[in-house]
Structure formats: C-alpha cells, structure tokens
Amino acid sequence: MAAQADVRRAAARAVTTTPWLTSRHSFSFGDHYDPENTHHGLLLVNNDDIVAAGTGFDMHPHRDMEIVTWVLRGRLAHQDSIGNRGVIYPGLAQRMSAGSGILHSEKNDSATEPVHFVQMWIVPDEAGIAPGYQQQEIGAEVLDGTLVTVASGIPGRDAAVSLHNRGAALHAARLRCGDIVSLPHAPYLHLFIARGAVGCEGAGDLAGGDAVRFTDAGGRRVSAHEPSELLVWEMHAKLGGASP
C-alpha cells in the first residue's frame, strides 16, 4: 500500500459544549457518531478538552480501555475507585487501565483558571484485565526539541508509562521555532498538533488542533513555525487486527 497522509483540520472536529466544558473530538464520540470516522489504527479517542475552573467530570465508569491523559495547561485532579488520587500537570505522563471496570473522576484543580488537556483512548490486547493506574513525570528539558516516548506497550521500548497493547506507543515533543523532528515508521501514525504551528512533509502547514492520519509512512520531518507541542501515536496494528 502506498503511503497516505489524511489531513484533518481543527475546524472539522465535532464539538461538545456545556457551561463548564468545551470538548473537541477527532473521532466519533458520545452523541457525535460518524460511521466513517470511528478510529485510526488503534486510536479510538483523541479529545481536546478545556474544563472551567472549579468544575469537571464526576465519578463515571469505564472498562476495557487504555486511557492516556496529557495536560497542556493547568492542573487536573484524578480520583478512582481503586484508590488512586493525584494531580496531573504539564509533563506528567498518566495512564489508566479501565480493564474489568473502574470508576474515576477528573476535576479542574484550580478555582480560578481553566485546565486544557488531551485525552486519548486505545483498546488493550486483552479484555478483562485488572484495572490499573500509572504516572511518571517527564522533565521539561527532556521534552524540549525531540520526540519522547510517553507511553508504550511495544516490547523493548522504554517509556514513561506502559500500555497494555503491544502495537502502540505515544510520543510527545515541545518544539521551539525552527526545531525539526522526524516521525517514527509505522503502518499507522496519528500526528496531533496540540498547540502552535508546524510544517510537515507530505501534509503541508498545520495549526493547533489539526491532525494527520498517516498510513504506511514514517521518517517525515515536522518543523516548527512557532513554539509548538506535538502528540504522535505510533501504531503497528489496527482495530481488530493482531499486534506483532
């Protein structure tokens, strides 16, 4: 199959709005269902959320999903039914495995400022595993100017936190103007511009909220036109397919 780059612009995303939440969805989510836009590779959810001060998601259930949260600005308080609680902030990698079933809440930890984060879901290799939680700080100096592996289930791949999927890894980078990174090689890649503006070989100029769904691609260079933050999913299988 020839390499493909499917550019998805920020303005084309479905949006959920409430008095306290603005959530922009890269894929079908909740009431926003499009049978032609349900996933890419193993990635089912890429929600770009802003939660108002002093508000958030009350306790709600999940199961059989690997949920990775990456905070861009502010602080997000997490609590779950297996006893984990803490505050997620920029540069802290966090993964919750819903497994056989878990309840959790996510609240803005500030009474005065909004929190902005991206939440991403992939399916685990096995259903019904024990629920779990993991977090690890990644230093700002590590993220600057290079792709860093935030979460991975790929055998032999070092990452801040682990995933229960052998075919997936999430990378992040904070780029200064002029910085260049190369994307990994994989059958499926999802590049999300969390903030800033970049140029990407084969996809052109991209702004905050834009995404590119690559198939059978890799090695393409991304260059920052201004300070930017990238989230890149490297996936070696697709939904319903076997991981290597």
Automatic annotation (TrEMBL):
Keyword field contains Metal-binding: yes
Listed name of the protein: Pirin family protein
PANTHER family named among the record's database cross-references: QUERCETIN 2,3-DIOXYGENASE (PTHR43212)
Stated family: Belongs to the pirin family.
Obligatory cofactor(s): Fe cation
Keywords in alphabetical order: Iron, Metal-binding
Alphabetical list of Gene3D superfamilies matching this protein: Jelly Rolls (2.60.120.10)
Pfam entry (one): Pirin
Transmembrane segments: none
The Pirin N-terminal domain, residue ranges: 12-122
Binding note for cofactor: Binds 1 Fe cation per subunit.
Residues engaged in binding Fe cation: 60, 62, 104, 106
Gene Ontology molecular function terms on file: metal ion binding
